[in-house]
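pinning this so it doesn't scroll away 📌
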Amino acid sequence: MLTKEILEKIEEANYIVFTAHKGPDGDACGSTLAMYYFFKQLNKKVDVVLPNPTPNYLRHIPGSDLVVDFETQQKKATECLEQADFIFCLDYNHPSRVGQMEEALLKATGTKMMIDHHLNPADFCDFVVSKPEISSTCQMVFDFLQAYDESKIYTPEIMKCIYTGILTDTGSFRFSSVDARTHEIAMKFKEHNFDHEIIHRQLFDDNKPNRMKLLGYCINQKMQLFLEKKIGFLSLTSEELKSFDCTKQDTEGFVNYLLSMQGIEVAVFFIEQANEIKMSLRAVGNWHVNEIVSEFYNGGGHQSAAGGHFVGEMEDLQKHFEANVFPKLETYHR
């Protein structure tokens, strides 16, 4: 992962920028900010530039207030990309994944390096490390930094960032992509007095009342179960979100509640956003939900966690899913 050529390019760079995909999640924020704190120790000028602000549920992650986001700081974000000598592209495999920041990213002349775990990486970086079999980009970042200088990894900030990314992208270590290395990294952190409990509390036990009311409504009123197919649906419209004074960010993790139910192995969450419907799929066992969204919903992701989108009404999407995906469902289980 860390070749002599890459090392030389990084050593030559005075200014390094770390980027991730739009709608940044725990893995995107964790990987970029872990890198930020690591290279800051090497006296490099560093910045994290993201397409959108850090979501509310990740406000506890170290450095969340340091992020330059393209959505609200377009001029500054563009200047960062223009001036960077080296740009890390973390947790995304295609320039389109950075949304409105794509043009500025592609125009940037600094050396670009991708570190990512999604399938089918596009050819837009000078160096590419793509490992779809790895459960999180944060796990890959740990290995990269360990090869660079392990002595600088075990700071409270870096461990919190990496653990947050691993925890969120593995569904709290539940997905099949988790391997021995995933647990080994957690073990190494514990050997350095890492407090994993506080990360769990901040991520999962910090709910505002309206979010809990929305979750209760979603499960009680919007849940649909197809037990013979081992699949369940949750859905929310933009009006329903508004009625609870919530945003899409407040629905993070809702899809996983379906997987806690007996008999459900595939969870699907539909949420209306702008002029389309976003969908999140999660699975346990040998389901390949990334193939579902790739085939029908212009999406992608991992075997057990994927996302896509649909232009139309919620009712039309559910009918489309039942008419097109259900007849082929067994082909995605192997």
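📌 and the second one:
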Amino acid sequence: MLYWLLYQKLYPFFHPFRIFRYLTFRTAFASGTALLIALFIGTYVIQKLREFQIGQYIREDGPQSHLKKSGTPTMGGVLIAIAILLPTVLWSDLTDPFVWICVFSTLAFGAIGFADDYIKVIKKRNLGLTARAKLAYQALAAAAVAIALVVMQQFRLFSTQLTVPFIKSWQPDLLWHLWPSTIPHLGFLMFLPFIAFVIFVLMGSSNAVNLTDGLDGLAIGCTIISAGALAVLTYLSGHLVFADYLELQRMPMVGELTIFCGSMVGASIGFLWYNAHPAEIFMGDVGSLALGGAIGTVAIVIRQELLLPFIGGIFILEAISVMLQVGSYKLRKKRIFKMAPLHHHFEQLGWHESKVIIRFWIGALVFALFALTTLKLR
């Protein structure tokens, strides 16, 4: 909106406004705008959540030190979503379809989390949507994103080829080429592998962030790091010189998502101001699912899904710890960890909450830096 006004409309009359054509400048402004929005309205949101008695319910089988957090305002993800989406709309080129795909994904997964949190608050329990319902809604939202990208592929604005870390000569295409040649009227089935892959990635990323959100500032701190790494990758993928030099799939229109990633960084930093230990507000599922959906969608659009285990390394470890714990208990009736997700395991070992948080942030930073190094190690 501001990009349209300041550059496209007013630039011919006031040439200094040409600075708004530069992606890096608008990304910096978007990040700063998101930070200020989160800081300025954070207190108001916390106050309103307290007035409506929207407090967190703590699981009784978790660490006993967490019981004192019961009643802390939750659903702070609404604040995060506003702080991400408003600067994105203000500073990005709204004619770019990939911007709207990421906005839709954030809103869709956030809406699922909102419904889950709302049920928890209304029924005054720690269980919201059933697992089956939540997964079904996530699959529908992810399928909508996949279909939108298929449409972009038809206009040659998007590629279904994967970028494989460490291997620059192999870029497998997630299309099923058997169908168009044998049964022409069922040609749309060629996109099924791609759609299934997108659903898997988005459901995995959104639930991984959701599982990580268990300590004050843990998930949002890791999000800052992941979103920062994605901002770098997005900028490089949309830049002619850098994309050619690094042999990335160059898609010029994805460059605008750098602004979206910058907004995510700024909004997350602003939310961390209130979510730092001891937290004044929790993001809830509305925040964790929205952030996970946003991170996964950006990675898919820039064709770096296979880097997600490094970009969001801590998120992946948290999710794997839960799967291993559940699988082990069902098969062997034995637990691998003292408690899952992984951050609770270290708490049970005697680590203070703040130490777990800081050390996991360090781990997230190491993972993200390694993800960036893979750009040349190919």
